[in-house]
Structure formats: structure tokens, C-alpha cells
Amino acid sequence: MIGTHSAGGAHRAPYPVPFLCAPTLCLAALLLLLPGCQWFTEPPMHKPDPHSYSNPHETRVDSLHLSLKVDFDTHTLSGTADWFPVAGHASKLILDTYGLDIHSVAGDGESLPFQLGAHDALLGQSLEISLLRPTKRVRIHYSTRQGARALQWLDASQTEGKKHPYLFTQSQAILARSWIPCMDSPGQRFRYTAEVEVPPGLLALMSAENPTETRADGRYTFRMNQPVPAYLMALAVGNLEFRSLGERTGVYAEPAMLDRAVHEFADMEQMLATTESLYGPYVWGRYDVLVLPPSFPFGGMENPRLTFATPTIITGDRSLVSLIAHELAHSWSGNLVTNATWDDFWLNEGFTVYVEMRIMEALYGPDYAAMLSAIAHADVSEEVKSLTASGKEGKTRLAANTAGEDPDDGVGPIAYDKGYHFLLLIEQTIGRPRWDAFLKAYFADHSFNSMHTEGFLARLDSLLSETEERRIGVQEWVYGTGLPMNCPPPNSGRFVAVDSALSRWRAGDSSALPAQLSDWSTHEWVYFLRQLNGRDSLSATFLDSRYGFTGTRNAEIGCVWYQWVIRSVPELSTSRALNSAVDDYVSQIGRRKFILPIYKALKESGQAERAVDFYKRARTNYHSLARHSVDALLGWPNP
Ligand code: BES
Ligand code: ZN
Q1: Is the C-beta atom of 299 inside 6 A of ligand 1?
Q2: Could you say which of 160, 254, 264, 327 is catalytic?
Q3: Of 22, 60, 104, 633, which is least packed with CB atoms within 10 Å of its CB?
Q4: Which residue ranges form the domains of the chain, and what is each CATH number?
Q5: Residues 6 or more apart from 507 whose CB is under 8 A from it?
Q6: Which residue is closest in CA terms to ligand 1's atom 6?
Q7: What is the band of 90 on the pLDDT scale with cuts at 50, 70, 90?
């Protein structure tokens, strides 16, 4: 039980300890509780990270203590970050920062010289601290500025309850440095503790052990005892309540949202148990989900112990809970075994999609999982086609090369769905028992450590025979472009049924389609709507009146419907009803995956002005990450 402490629930030591005799065990357990102690896993596989200025090869830091005050009036965080370097003298510590005001730096109480490097629009500034002598604690007094990229500040009016302001962070990929001076590289891990002061009446939560009750004085303390990389640092502050879902799972949300969230996530405890039975113990203690306001830029973010999730998955019929399975899966792939650099991002996401599919299959059956798998296949096929058509074939490689680029631009179907299909092909080639045993050992052996593509391939090499390796075409999958010929094809019986309903309907049989929306799952509708083409546009009004797509509360369905109407049904697209539905959609939802394709559809169908008109109103509701992408698409003048 070493190294799990109050996190609880873990069944094995998450990282190796040096000696294992009984007295030393006690001593080790004690030391592990102290910030700044050095009982750590073996040094991470070294691979230079082109997205960090930090110098981990010279000086490593193994824990952080944050003390921050959250100011909703000025939209700033201010306070101190205490870093505890691993003993052994190095003369300098280099951290990443982005737009931080550094007020002073001290080493064990004495002021230290420091220097901020030149500002780079992508990477920010290095903070170089001269360590005059071996130093136990480096204290940085700092504050964030308005516009800090990881932070989204919401007025009361932008929340569900309309009474209290809200703050949340999104640190992945390289935005942690915009609210904490840190080694912002996925290959560098640290434990942390924090004190956070917020206005009375609000609850503060982090990717750590969390409170379940609001404190009248607004002061909260946090502890994350397992080492995590900076991109998993997270903070949320708002009028939030907690409800338990099971022994180790629960949900936080604004009060008005809580009942719906509890209903939607009823299977979470079982998801956790299922994943453990497949891939070994869940070592993080609790698994809770925080439901954010709709402006959250992603579907979900796997912050350890506390997944952040978009409210757009709460549809009332539990049809989008695969997103929870996905974020939960990251507790193994990503949070436990972490991509060493953003070039290895497919190791995080490809594995996670694979594990997500396995969870969904175990809980809801192979027919259900096959739909998700077929959608992943369609997504990656489309992405390969469009990247190839626009001369960006190089971007279809799993092993990426993102130096000099924003790693956030690489978030898409290649890492996720090409990665997933590669792993699925391995599974199908060698059989589940061998593959599952491999995965379980992979997560156990590299717990709390990082992994790069080459390291994974070396391990895979020891699993596969030469014939298997050749049959799979490992090298081509990882380093080649496009989708290899032996990619497992989609195989969903439920989608075949949708296809046949669609062709019977096209042939004039209107009873071939479901009588009502609820007869098909979200996935069947998404699949159906994606097949619609220009010729079907004559039936748009019929479809809309039967199923009420325009103005739907199901954002996943809305996203596909609006794209098709905008691109293929001009009469409906310019109708007042559709105009105001799309306007509401893009101004209320900030999830990039949903809004970007709509702006794109407008732009590509000659309606760029209309897109800009929507965007003018919506932009203030978006997180900087979503703004960044839409700005680039629409050529927004002052990003
Ligand atoms: N970790 C990602 C989100 C992410 C990736 C944020 C890279 C910033 C940079 C998260 O696990 C994720 O993949 N979210 C998906 C949902 C999922 C079901 C595919 C999303 O937000 O759409
Ligand atoms: Zn993910």
C-alpha cells in the first residue's frame, strides 16, 4: 500500500520504492507524505520536449505547493508556487510561463536572481532561476494576468444558476504555464498540495482529493499524492454541489443540473469496476465527474480524480456516456502511463479510445460498441481523405512531429481513431487473452511514468512474432501515412439496419424510418444524418417535422443536422427558425468539436459573413482554446 495513503482504494504500490524491509517501509511511508521528498519512480524515459523550456535533465522538481487567491473582480489568480527540487545541486531551474507576472523568487527564504526569456506566441517565456546553493524550496510570488489562456472566467449570467460567477481551467496541452510557473512537459511529474481562497459561498475543486461541502470562509486545501504531469493540473470554482453515485464515484454540478447529471451517470461505479477487471486496479482513489457550463471547450478532460465534462452529454437517455468511459479510461492510459511528449499523443488517445470501446462493450454489449467503433472508422477515413486532399498527408502519421506547432492542433481523428484501429488490429491478430495480458502489464510496469512511441514499439516487439509483426505492418501503421489496407473495417449490424431503412425510405417507403426520435440511439441518428446528401434535401422539412431536429437539445444530433442543412438545404438554412436555432447553438455551446464544423460549413458554403455575424455574439462565451481555432478559421482580425 505504499504510496497510496489517503488516496485510498489502490491495491498495489503505484511506483517502485528503493528498499522493502519492514522498518524502511514505515520510514518510506512517512517520507512519502512530506512534500519535497525524493521517493520517486525511476527517471522518466528521456526524450527532449520541443514544447517546454524546462531543464529536467539538470534539475528535477518532485513536488509543488500552491497558495492562490481567486479574484473574480480582476479575473486574476495570485499567490505563490513553492517548488521542491530533487536533491543534488544544479545551478539553475528553468520553468515555463505564459503571461505570468513574476513578482519575486526566493530559495529557502533568500531572494534569488531570476530572468524571464523572450516571449514566444506559442511557448510563452522561460523563467530561469539561479540556484546559488543546494535549495530545498524555491518560492515564486506571481499572479496571472487578464486573458490567461488556461482560465475561463464566467459571469453569473453565463452559468446555469445565474447567481454566482464561475472559473475553470483547461491545462492540456501546454496551457498549465499560463496559471502556474512549472515544467510544462508531459514527461515531468510531481505531486502537489494547494491552498486556494475563493469568495465565500463558492466551492473550489482540483485534480486532487476534493471537498464535498462549501466552506463559509472560502478556504480550501488540496492534496494530490501521486505524481502527475502539469497538463493534469486543474481548478474549478463555482456554486457547486456534490452527490455520491457509489462507493468511489460521484458527481459535482451546479445545483440546477445535479439531478439530471446523477441520472445520466448512473453506471459510473460499474464502469470503474469493469475497467479494473480488465486492466488492473484504479490507483487514484476516487473517480468523480464535474459537469461544467456549456462553454467548456472540450467534451471531457481527464483531470485525475475529477474528470471535467461538458453538459452536452447530458441528454436524458444516457446515450453519450461513452465520453465518461473515455475519460475514465485515461486513468490508465494517459494519467498512469503518459505520453512523453506531444508527438506521442496517440499513445494517450489511441489507447484511451481502445479502452473506452472495451468498457462500452462490457457494459452495453458488442452491438452497441460496434456502433461507436464504426463512427471512429468513419471519422478517421474522412480525416485521412481531407488531410490528403489538402496536401497534409504527413499529418496522417501516428508518430507526429509537432515541434514549432501548437500541439493542440493535432487533436483529431488520427491520434484517436487511427491509433484505436491499430490497437484493434493487434487485438484481432493475436487474440484478446494475449493482448489483454500485454496491456495490463504495460499499465502496471510503466505506472507513473512516461512512454514514447519508440518505447512502446520496443515492448510490442517482444510480444509479437515476426510473422505477426509483418501481418500487422507495425512500421507502416506508426510511421506511414494514410489508413493501411488491413485496417479493420466497420462492422455494425445496427448501422446496417440504418442503411437499409435509409434506402427503403429513399425508395418511397416512409414507414421504413422510425416513428419517433427515441426509437434510435444518438449514434444511429448521427450515422443516418451523415449519410444524407443533396438529393435528400427535398425531404428536409419532412424529417424536421417528424423528429424536431432544429432546436434539438441533443447537441451531437444538432451538430450533424445543422451542418447538413447549411451545406445542402439552402431554403431551410436561411429560414428564421433555423437561423435562430444555429445562433443559439453556437452561442450557448463552447465545445470546439461542435462549433467549429458549423462555422466551417457556413464558410465553405459561401456564407462566411453569416458565420462572422454569429461569431461576433458568441465569441465572448468561448474559452481561449475554442476562440483560437475559430479565429483562425474565420480570419478574425484581433485574436
Ligand atoms: N484529453 C482529451 C482532451 C484534450 C486533448 C484537451 C488534447 C486538450 C488537448 C480528452 O480525453 C478527450 O479526448 N476528449 C474528447 C472526448 C472523447 C470522448 C473523444 C473531447 O473533448 O471531445
Ligand atoms: Zn482523451
Answers
A1: yes
A2: 327
A3: 22
A4: 2-25+336-479 (1.10.390.10), 51-238 (2.60.40.1730), 240-331 (3.30.2010.30), 532-634 (1.25.40.320)
A5: none
A6: 172
A7: confident
